[in-house]
């Protein structure tokens, strides 16, 4: 795993400001990806399993980890969060949102837990042929951190085909703008959970974002999702 502190945060920040997402190549090694994907059958590690078709979320399934999180997941969550806090606070200020986020993830989790958001949200997702994830937002309660992370654990072209990560942005009085982020095994994408500010001629305004996964055509695709707020 690359140390979160060694990443090119000025470039990541610029990409987040420009497009609402940032690509991080090779955040995890192939061996780490294989090990994490291999946890999926171990139901003892997870608090719940969701079959997406039952809820019209798409097709495929995912499982939320319970506490304590596996070490690599916990390290990513606590290590990346502090680097995102300046972006999150600056975005909220630009959008006229009063909420500010503490410097350390443990302090933000305490805020979530005090409000009754006690359930961990990091998850593993599993897709097979024909599976997909509808465009959505991972909100889960009153306290929402405005950025999240996804890491592709499978290798396109070898383990699966199709299954592209898709982000859409809806600006006022305009049609949605799609963005496809090409990922290889171990690559991560940071992206806006809900909304972000865009600078217009009359100041900043909010745009709404949603994310999903296009249809997997062949094989099996695993993804790690790291959401920084907990759920009710």
TrEMBL record:
Keywords: Iron, Metal-binding, Oxidoreductase. Belongs to the iron/ascorbate-dependent oxidoreductase family. Pfam families: Oxygenase-NA. It comes from Rhodoferax ferrireducens. It comes from the Bacteria. Residues 118-231 form the Fe2OG dioxygenase domain. This is Fe2OG dioxygenase domain-containing protein.
């Amino acid at each position: 795993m690359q140390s979160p502190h060694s990443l090119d945060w000025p470039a990541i920040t610029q990409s987040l400001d420009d497009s609402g997402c940032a690509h991080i190549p090779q955040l995890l090694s192939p061996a780490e990806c294989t090990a994490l994907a291999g946890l999926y059958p171990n139901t003892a590690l997870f608090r719940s399993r969701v079959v997406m078709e039952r809820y019209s979320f798409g097709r495929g399934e995912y499982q939320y980890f319970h506490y304590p999180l596996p070490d690599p997941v916990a390290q990513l969550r606590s290590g990346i969060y502090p680097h995102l806090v300046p972006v999150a606070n600056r975005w909220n200020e630009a959008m006229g949102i009063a909420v500010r986020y503490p410097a350390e993830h443990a302090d933000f989790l305490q805020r979530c837990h005090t409000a009754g958001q006690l359930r961990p949200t990091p998850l593993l997702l599993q897709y097979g042929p024909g599976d997909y994830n509808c465009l959505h937002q991972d909100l889960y309660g009153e306290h929402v951190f405005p950025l999240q992370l996804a890491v592709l654990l499978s290798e396109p072209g070898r383990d699966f085909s199709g299954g592209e990560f898709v982000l859409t942005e809806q600006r006022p009085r305009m049609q949605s703008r799609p963005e496809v982020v090409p990922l290889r095994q171990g690559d991560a994408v940071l992206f806006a959970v809900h909304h972000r500010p865009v600078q217009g001629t009359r100041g900043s305004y909010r745009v709404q974002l949603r994310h999903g996964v296009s249809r997997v055509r062949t094989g099996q695709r695993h993804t790690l999702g790291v959401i920084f707020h907990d759920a009710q």
